[in-house]
Each structure stands twice: as C-alpha cells, then as structure tokens.
Amino acid sequence: MLKRIGRAAAWLITAALLFVLFRKIPFATVLEATRRAAPWTVPVGAALIATIYVADSFAIWKTFGWFLAPLSFAQVLVVRGATYLLAAINYNVGQGAIVYFVHRVAGAPVLRGVATVLLIMGINVLALLVLATVGLGVAPDVPHSLRVIVGVAYAGLAVYAVAVALKPRWLAQRPLFDVLLAAGLGGHARALLVRAPHIAALMAFQTCILRAFGVAVPIGQAVVALPIVFFIAVLPISVQGLGTTQAAMVFFFARYGPGDAEAQKAAVLAASLSGQVLALVLQTALGIFCLRSRVGRELQTAAASAAEKPAA
C-alpha cells in the first residue's frame, strides 16, 4: 500500500513540476529552442551516453571484483545494460537484480551484495561532492545555497569517515556494514578513482547538451552546479528525476542561455528534456538487447527473485 502511495506521489510531483515549468515557459518557446539545437546534438549525445555506459560498467566491474565477487567485464556490461531497463521500470528491482545475479553466478552472500551496491552509491555521492568542492574554488559567482549544501554534505562525510576509520564494534557486527567498514579509507579511495571516468562522462554529456542548445555554461559553474543537479535528480521524489532535474537545470543555468529571460529558460528546459529523452531511448534499447542474451535471461530470473523477496 505504501509503495503504491509512493509511486502515485512521485507521478503527481512529476506532473506538477512539469505543469509549473510549462506554465512559466511557453511550450512554443521550448519547441523553438529545440528546433535551433545544433545538428551534432544526437550523434555526440549518443557517443557520450555510450561512454557513460562503458565507464559505469568499468567502475562496477572493478568494485565488485575488489569487494564482492570476480565477474568478467563482458558479464558486467550485459548486466549493467539490462538493469538500465529494469531500473526504469522499478529502481529497487533493478538494483536488487544485480545483487541476486552475483549471488546466483558467484555464490556471493546477498547481504554482502547489498552492502557493495550501497558502497557504489556512496562513492557516487562522494565523487559529486569532490567535484562540487573543486567548482566552489574556481567558480567566481556561486549561489550561497550551494555552499550550504556542500557544507552539510561534508559534515555527513566527516561522521562517515570517522566510522570507517574506527570501525565501531556495534557496526562491524552487522553484516550490512561489513563491506563499508572492511573497505577502509584506502578501499574507498580506490573505488572513487575507478568511478571518476563515469562522473566525468556524465558532466561532459550535460555540458555538451547545454552547449548544443546555445547555453554556454562556464566550466567552473558546470563543475560546481551539475553535481547538485545530479543529487536532486536521484532523489526518490519524482519519476526518473523528471521535473526535478529540469527545475534545477533552469535555476542554475538559465542565465547562460541565448536571448531574453524567457528564451534562456526555454533553451535550458529544451536541452534538459532532450538529453533525458535521448538517454532514456538509448538505454531502453540497450536494455532490451542485453536482456535477450544468456546473461540477460539469468538476470531476469534474478530480477524475479529480487521482486519476490520484499513481498516475502
């Protein structure tokens, strides 16, 4: 019941945000900004989405090999591609499918798999925080709210780092925290290093899509603001970050667009929606292709187990 309410609320929030955005920014203006996009938008965007996929798979492959179970890079490529589609349908099932797949093919304990996925998610957040910090140092004009968000994130990071360094017994005895604490600061650093190409590819994709629509965001501003946009996008309050992502992009980047205030907002909104649609289409096609493989069929079985487990 609560899950249904949560899904309904996410759809409601998504619809409300898009309604407000198109109320303030006329659809015709957004459509005109889309028509003016650079002719290289789709091929360059597709190439960068492919780069994101490979870099993400590489980081997962290395992290799983260190902390969970060794898999071949080909297996991880198929699994990651398939979970793009599974996660688009149900994010929790998509993440759970990875855990149950590794459990089936390598015998890795389920809780250890969950802990490794949590480590990967935490490293993603850490990488974004590092980028935002760099951006704060090089961007000349940063909203005060960004500095507050980064400061709060560092306070949480400090508490986490102390826990990893001290390994308190009451946490170490819990299987879910085993991987996080056993990795230590060195393990976290290694996981962060292999995650860097993925984050860099994400940043390059968003920046290029904005440039394709005439939104010339300075590199320093992109480095400090895009990590915050990514944070907002993954919050489980809307469907696939739709609406929240666009509102954040318009807030941070509209001033760098072409034309008057309305045209600037329209350019950013058109770029953000176009980039998200392009990524969704390509990732869905990739997911369908990967699910048709032998590894993909095994992953579907794992996904069924992941879906049944919460119900049980």
Describe the structure.
The protein has about 300 residues and is mainly alpha-helical. The chain has helices spanning about 1-25, 25-35, 40-65, 75-90, 90-105, 110-140, 145-165, 170, 180-210, 220-235, 245-255, 260-290, 295-310. Helix 2 packs across helix 12 and helix 4 (about 75-90) packs across helix 13 (about 295-310). It starts with a helix and ends with a helix. The model has no long low-confidence stretch (mean pLDDT about 85).
What are the main properties of this structure?
83% helix, 312 residues, globular, mainly alpha
Furnish the topology, listing elements before pairings.
Layout: H1 2-24, H2 27-35, H3 41-67, H4 73-89, H5 91-106, H6 110-138, H7 144-166, H8 169-172, H9 178-212, H10 219-234, H11 244-253, H12 261-291, H13 294-311
Structural class call reads mainly alpha
Radius of gyration: 20 Å
User: On the 0-100 scale, what is the average pLDDT?
Assistant: 83
- Poorly predicted regions are none
Major sheet summary line: none
Shape: globular
- The amount of beta strand, in percent, is under 5%
Number of helices: 13
The overall number of domains is: 1
Sketch the topology as an H/E string, one letter per element.
HHHHHHHHHHHHH
How many beta-strand segments?
Answer: 0
Q: Level of helix content?
A: over 70%
CA(first)-CA(last) distance = 15 Å
Short account of what is shown:
The chain is mostly helical. The chain has helices spanning 2-24, 27-35, 41-67, 73-89, 91-106, 110-138, 144-166, 169-172, 178-212, 219-234, 244-253, 261-291, 294-311.
